[in-house]
Structures are given as structure tokens and as C-alpha cells.
């Protein structure tokens, strides 16, 4: 289940940020390593919301710093 | 200035300034999504566009209603594709002196004129951001710069558009999206029809241009700001008032 979420997070990240799949590792920070600016972060969050059918309130966006954080957050939301 | 193949959305397109803006874009090859509160109103402008061999599609929407706006832009995306240009022109007035103004009159004008622009920009942002291209033009008014007795709601909504314009320019600039405003002066439309004669005379004698504006006088500035070449102009206002406010 977690692997599936990771794969989908990777897919969305590649689509939104235009980075290579190999770069999207669990420890990668969206802003520091994958070059996302503030608008990219907003688009990424919206794309995760669409992909997983969840709502990510603004106050909780800060919890998602790395790819791994996204997987953890989304897994929790889907439980 | 060609808009060949570009999707242009114009709100308040059924009459007045909006109708002329829609026609002007269609004459430059745009595919114009004409938005009005009624299907019939929008269709009237589309008919005029098609009579000139242009391309347009009619949409009914209440821009002050967020669900209606979301549906509108989903429909436009599906029918025509990602808009290159959004012209927030829809606007109403409910004139009365402030101390007699009902809350409903305040709310309605602010909701259509200012909130409507916000809702439309929000709905179109994502696709414009993905396209890395957008031209947003907000039709404000000189009244938003000078105020007018009896128009505190209208003036506030139009002044609000300036703040919105600058903020959107700052937020979306990195994505190749510009946001500018046009401030018409007194233009002969249904909205100014009931202007008292003395006021018309005052405008005619004060404005260097020596006449009231015609609806078609506003479109050129809008088209210019929406053009490819205007990509380094953002957060600005072009006043089109025949020099009235000089």
C-alpha cells in the first residue's frame, strides 16, 4: 500500500516539477532538492489532492517537506 | 496584434464595453468565450461575432457565485481549451448615497465587480500556470481612482480591482502571466444611460477629448495588454477617459 502511494507521489512530482524520476527519492526535499518554488508547492499540493482524493489544509502543508513526508502524510489521510 | 487560435474569456460580454471587447478580440482571430448572466445575452454577442465570420461560444454564469464560476471554467477548458486571456469586465452599479445604502446594495456590487474577478482569476490560474502563459485584464474605472458621491460601493469595488491586479501580477509573474487593469472614464452604455444631462455636459466640456467615451474606445487598450508583446507590462493600469481625470 505504501509502495503504491510512493509510486503515485513520484509520478505526480515528476509531472508537476518536470524533474527526472531518479531524482524523486524519499529523502528529497521538494524545495531544496527538486527546485520547487512557492507556486510549485501550491500546484504540487493541489495535484496530490486530486490524485488521492484528499484535502490538504494550508496549515498542514508545512508537514510535507520531502517526498517521504508526502507519503507519510497521504498514507495517514487515507486511513 | 493577432489572437489567432487563442481562447479569450470575456465576462459581462452581452452588452456595452464587454460586447465591444469580445468583438474586437474575435476580429483578431480569437476564439471568444462570451460570458454573461443569461444564455440569451451571451448568445447575442456570439451571433454578432459569427455574423463577422468570427468564432465565439456563449456561456451563462453568475461571476459572484463560486460554484457557477468553477463550472464555467471547466466547461470552457473542455470546449475550447486553456484560456490565453481573461478579461474581467462584468460589473454592475447600485448608486445611492452611503447613509441610505442598503447592505444588499453594497454586497451585490462588491460581489459582482470585485469578488467575481477574484473567483474567475482563481479558476483560470491553474491552467494558465501549467501553460506558463496568461494575460489577465481587469476592467476597473476612473471612479476607483477618484471616488464619486453616490457610488461608494462601485468606487470601492473598482479601487479594489487595482489592489487585486497588483497582487495577482506579483503572484503569477514567474509563470509568464501578466495582470493589468484598464480604467475607463465615462462611456456611453446602459450603465451610464441614466446620467443626468448636466453631468454629461460636464464630462463633455471638461474632458480634453470633448466627448463621452464609446464602448469601442476601451477595447484597444484591453487588446494591447492582452497581446503577446505586452509580456513585460504587469500590475499596471491604462486609463481610457479622454483625459477627463487629468
For this structure, the CATH topology of chain B is: Rossmann fold
- Give the CATH class of chain A: Mainly Alpha
Strand order of the largest sheet of chain B: 3-2-1-4-5-6-7
**Chain-averaged pLDDT of chain A:** 93
Overall SS class of chain B: alpha/beta
What is the domain total for the residues of chain B?
1
Q: How many domains in all of chain A?
A: 1
Percent helix of chain A, as a range, is 55-70%
The tally of strands of chain A reads 0
> What's the story with the biggest beta sheet of chain A?
none
Question: Can you walk me through this structure?
Answer:
The complex is a heterodimer of chains A (79) and B (246). Helix content of chain A is 59%, strand content 0%. Chain A is built from 4 helices and no strands. With 246 residues, chain B is an alpha/beta fold. Chain B has a single domain, classed as 3-Layer(aba) Sandwich (Rossmann fold). Chain B is 45% helix and 16% strand. The longest helix of chain B is centred in the middle third of the chain and has 29 residues. Chains A and B meet through helix 2 of A and helix 4 of B.
Features:
A: mainly alpha, Non-ribosomal Peptide Synthetase Peptidyl Carrier Protein, Chain A, 0% strand, globular, B: 246 residues, Rossmann fold, seven-stranded parallel beta sheet, 8 helices, 45% helix
Can you summarize this structure?
The complex is a heterodimer of chains A (79) and B (246). By secondary structure, chain A is mainly alpha-helical. In chain A, 59% of the residues lie in helices and 0% in strands.
Fold blueprint:
The complex is a heterodimer of chains A (79) and B (246).
Chain A: H1 2-17, H2 38-52, H3 58-61, H4 67-78
Helix pairs in contact in A: 1-2, 1-4
Chain B: E1 7-11, H1 16-27, E2 31-36, H2 39-51, E3 55-60, H3 66-79, E4 85-88, H4 103-131, E5 134-139, H5 143-146, H6 152-172, E6 177-184, H7 197-206, H8 219-226, E7 237-240
Parallel strand pairs in B: 1-2, 1-4, 2-3, 4-5, 5-6, 6-7
Helix pairs in contact in B: 1-8, 3-4, 4-6
